[in-house]
Structure prediction request, 159 residues.
Amino acid sequence: MFKIVSMNRNNFYYYKPIVTRLIKSHKDGHITAKGFQSFLKLNREDIQHQHNAVIIALHKNKVVGMLACADQGRKLAITVVHGDYRKHGLGKRMLQEVIKQCGGFYCEAAADNLPSIKTCFACNMVATDAFLRYGKIILRMNTLNNVKMKESDAKGTNV
Prediction:
């Protein structure tokens, strides 16, 4: 029913304007201007790096979801699913794919963005920090392998 594909050098110029329109029309106030600008700056070469990815969800060849990350999400983490296609597990499928491709994932989600937080927990991510930004509680989420790596780095040992 749904197909998950990666944006790559060959399809980048085809998909980027389509994905940009999806973000503009279905971001629902959870995508920051900084995040959107970071996405717009992505180029063909950027998405070839090991810890960068743009994942697209297709339904009958129509782009209905996207997840983009740079540096496993530390520099960019943005997910959007078309309103008509939510609650089908697309966010989870895209996040699982990006974790697989990038070897981990990090993001920040507003505490009132329950769909994003539930998706992160469903993909075995954990909340590693919480802080206030513009009066909103923000959770820092991370994959377990990144959390374990940070702990072992602090102790000076390898996992």
Summary: The chain has a mean pLDDT of 90.
